[in-house]
Amino acid sequence: MQKKLKLWDAIMLVMGSMIGSGIFIVSSDIMRNLGSGWWLVFVWIITGVMTIAAAISYGELSAMFPKAGGQYVYLKEIFGKKIGFLYGWGLFSVIQTGTIAAVAVAFGKFTAYLVPALNDAQPIFQQGEFKITYIQILAIVVIMLLTYINTKGVESGKFLQNLFTGSKILALIGIIIAGIFLVKNSFLTENFGYGFKAFSNLEKDSLGNFLQTGWKSVSGLTLFGGIASAMVGAVFSSVAWENVTFVSGEIDNPKKNVVRSMIFGTSAVMVLYLAVNLVYISTLSRDEIAFATDDRVAVSSALAIFGNTGTLIIALLVMISTFGCNNGLILSGARVFQTMSLDGMFFKSAAENNKNQVPENALWMQGIWASVLCLSGQYGNLLDMISFVIVLFYMITVFGVIYLRYKKPELERPYKTWLYPITPLIYLVIGTAFCALLLYFKTQYTWPGLLLVLIGLPIYYIINSRK
């Protein structure tokens, strides 16, 4: 593979893949679950600690195995082909493609804010609860367009990634500065005044709309369930940084630059996320955050800061953000499926590069399945399914750092995990609690993602029996 990606490109890929739609939406759900400014900040801090701890731990593996395929390669080298395949299958069936679908649907939702006719139009098809809308069709068009652009070579994808990532970072910084200096009526004291007493207001009507029936105090197991449910959105907003490991084969000096990009990129994004949430807490009351129209809390905040013009600014920003995010996801994901194909673990045609030296067939396979997932469910349901499976595989990979230290201490480690074994253990403890609570409180959304991954087991045995 050609080394066309420098350190800056790798950092932009990390940040661009992380910053998509979540930061502009999910804080509403966090506030509905926990009802306090302190809890909103706590959820983002604990998610930030998890994310950075995982990135630091992955750094050791990225320096040991600087190959295209990233996390798939790590799991295959540590635990064998079966676990590697299950991750790769999970990546194709739900993790990468599901994330692409969710981000594309979010692009459609914010486009509909600028073009109300998209929201008002009758569904193209509806059978019971299943329906196909123009927003979903727009999401598919975006996926197909970005897939086509990335078939034209790494340079095309890199240019788009740097352009859109740079734009949304500057825009987020602008919103943070405006939220500090231009806000007229601050709700900071009021929102922090609730302290660490948690409240919930999650009652819905027959159509599934949230009812403002008053905040109820929560504690005990219900509180932990609320924290886990609230973290779903924050975790989803903070994943995909590992996508940079998928393109290790195309990064200059991967033994150093991959780990640098992961640690710097994740840290910078989590600081931005925390600052943006402080802007929400400052510009909006608790009810305005929790019950923002269609969860578009960023739009409500911009309305408070800039007036009506601000809502258009935010809608455009989210469209730029989700477009750039999906470009990074599409660019990197196909490299894993190509590596799996070269190992005899995926469709043979996925291994081939086109004349532009990119895996065109793998790109189209990924794009088509992501488009199918766009039609399969709503944004919130996709988040629950994806977040659970992603954290599960993060945990297995982070555990791999500890396992490899014990099994093969003699291996060369150009970079060693900072504060080992504390750093990986922090992630494993928080991740275990998160997954267990989600399984208990959101079983109907978490088991489908797990089932899709487990379907990979018979497929694995079929592939190997043919050999």
Structure characterization notes:
- The chain crosses the membrane at residues 7-26, 38-58, 86-112, 132-151, 163-183, 221-241, 262-282, 302-325, 385-406, 418-439, 445-463.
- It is built from 20 helices and 4 strands.
- It is mainly alpha-helical and 467 residues long.
- Strands 1-2 form a two-stranded antiparallel ribbon. It has a two-stranded antiparallel ribbon with strand order 3-4.
- Strand 1 (125-127) and strand 2 (130-132) form a beta hairpin.
- The protein starts with 6 loop residues before the first helix and ends with a helix.
Q: Please tally the helical runs, counting DSSP H or I stretches of 4 or more residues.
A: 20
What form results from the Cα inertia axes? globular
The CATH architecture classification is Up-down Bundle
**SSE pattern:** HHHHHHEEHHHEEHHHHHHHHHHH
The CATH C-level name is Mainly Alpha
Strand residues, percent: under 5%
CATH fold call: Amino acid/polyamine transporter I
Strand order of the largest sheet: 1-2
* Amino-to-carboxy terminus distance: 28 Å
Number of strands: 4
Low-confidence stretches: none
Question: What is the quaternary state of this protein?
Answer: single chain
Profile the largest sheet: 2 strands, antiparallel
Q: Which class of secondary structure composition applies to the elements?
A: mainly alpha
> What is the count of structural domains?
1
Membrane topology: Multi-pass membrane protein
Transmembrane segments: 7-26, 38-58, 86-112, 132-151, 163-183, 221-241, 262-282, 302-325, 385-406, 418-439, 445-463
Organism: Chryseobacterium piscicola
Main location: membrane
